[in-house]
Amino acid sequence: MRFVDEFRDPALAKTLLREIEALAAEVSAVRGRPIAIMEICGGHTHAIFRFGIEGMLPPSIELIHGPGCPVCVLPMGRVDDCIALAEMPGVTLATFGDALRVPGARGSLMEAKARGLDVRTVYSPMDALAIARAEPERTVVFFGLGFETTMPSTALTVLQAEREDIRNFSLFCNHITIIPTIQALLDEPDLRIDGFLGPGHVSMVIGTEPYRFVAERYARPLVVSGFEPLDVLQSLWMVLKQMRDGRAEVENQYARVARDAGSRVAQDAVARVFELREFFEWRGLGTIPHSGVRLREAYAAWDAERRFLLPNLRVADPEACQCGDVLTGRIRPRDCRVFGKACTPATPLGALMVSSEGACAAYHRYGALAREPA
Amino acid sequence: MCLGVPGRIVEIVDAANAIAIADVAGVRRKVGLTCILEDGATPESCIGDWVLIHVGFAMSRIDEAEAKATLAMLAALGEEDELAAWAPPR
Ligand code: SF4
After folding, report:
1. Which of A20, A89, A242, B55 is deepest in the core (most CB within 10 A)?
2. pLDDT value of position A69
3. Yes or no, beta carbons of A125 and B55 under 8 Å apart
4. Which residues have C-beta atoms less than 6 Å from ligand 1?
5. Which residues pair with residue A275 across a beta bridge?
6. Domains of chain A: which residue ranges?
7. Residue ranges of A 320-349 with Cβ closer than 8 A to chain B
8. Fold of A76-177+261-307
9. What average pLDDT does this structure show over A81-99?
10. In chain B, which stretches have pLDDT less than 50?
């Protein structure tokens, strides 16, 4: 496939690994400890495990798997709201496959479906709108989630529903935004992250400018990265080079897809349809100001939260879960007390064990490739 | 869910709503083009373009020149190493 095989070239990967090793040795010697680099995005976590990248890196680099997996940070109460929606007469609940297995206090959407509720998997929000168009007797609710990457698609779908005046369609909006969360991470008192790989597909929408505070205010290098092995390796190398040179900047490794200005059309659609919420709750991280969006008043007719009475309950994570500690890099997945025991991909307790972008699921699946903790 | 896939626009099926068919590794998929239609560009002008697709929408064109520049830079890095390896001992 175009520019996929090229960015998997083993010879170039070897070269980069050699460069990384030399740089990491130099920088970690100065700091007297391993360099901690966080990949913010779950897509990177997935790539890092799938291609065994962590196992190739020298011990002087520690990768911390960040909170950028929208399924993983979905609070249990939101899944329960979805089930409550699906239980309403005539309602069809449509969402992405990833969201189906996330456990809520009352089980997952998959289990709800097995009980006979009308829960359908869609590949795109447009598919959910197509169901509403084809089945006017059903009340279709699209459970929309994801970061800035998926926000424009949902916004454009709502605009399409408005254009066609499809009234049996609505959105249960759980979209979240990554910037306030990076800020919250940087404000943690025990922060031990030296640099970041920035989420390439978020930047494809929002550009690179919104991360400037990471470099300027918190003096951490951030390199917006693609998702193939060479992308990840090159980005790590760029972060290390910045550290060696005493720089902290926002750089873009993924310019072939993510332009520095992002996508104006996508940004406009998002701004037209959504507004920031005061607060949004994240699983394992608590409530973060301005980290979620909701539909604007003008689109109230397509807003499931305005149209239906939702339980909207706060549900505490199971006592044994340590998802929050994993998400902030305090512990590694396998250090969670229930990892691989009470919590496995077949019986997930936490959402990090569910999604293919979740660190715990990745560790569990590709664990043999991961490096033993030093 | 956040993993995008590259594909190539092969056909426009609904120009009014900017809906196209993309070839994604041999599979035909319906995709929305709105996000890549800047400043009055028509859907037809996207035919043949390589794009990155997320949840049914083409979100960005894949810039061939940028991709090649990145790869060339990495290849040069490899050559530098090779040269260093071949350098006579001093
Ligand atoms: S092992 Fe399970 S409970 Fe523990 S952090 Fe991972 S997902 Fe959460």
Report:
1. B55
2. 84
3. yes
4. A 321-323, 326, 333, 336, 338-339, 343, 349-350, 352-353, 360
5. A294
6. 76-177+261-307
7. none
8. Rossmann fold (3.40.50)
9. 95
10. 90
DSSP A372: P
A24, pLDDT greater than 90: yes
Task: Give the ranges where B1-90 is alpha helix by DSSP (H).
Answer: 64-86
Of A18, A256, A263, the CB nearest to B35: A263
pLDDT band, residue A101 (cuts 50/70/90) = confident
The chain-wide mean pLDDT, for chain A, equals 91
For residue A103, the model assigns a pLDDT of 86
How long a stretch of residues is chain B?
Answer: 90
Closest CA to A334 of A130, A74, A49: A49
Chosen for mutation from B9, B19, B55 (greatest number of chain A CBs closer than 10 Å) is B55
Cα–Cα nearest to A71, from A267, A364, A351: A351
Query: What is the average per-residue pLDDT within A40-62?
Result: 91
**CA atoms of A334 and A337, how far apart (whole Å):** 8
Contacts of A138 (CB under 8 A, 6+ apart): A90, A91, A92, A118, A131, A132, A168
Chain B residues in contact with A197 by the CB 8 A cut-off are none
Find the helix packing angle between A359-366 and A42-50, rounded to 10°.
Answer: 10
Token digits of residue A22: 């030399």
User: Using one digit for the tens of pLDDT, what is the confidence trace for A251-282?
Assistant: 999 999 999 999 999 999 999 999 999 999 88
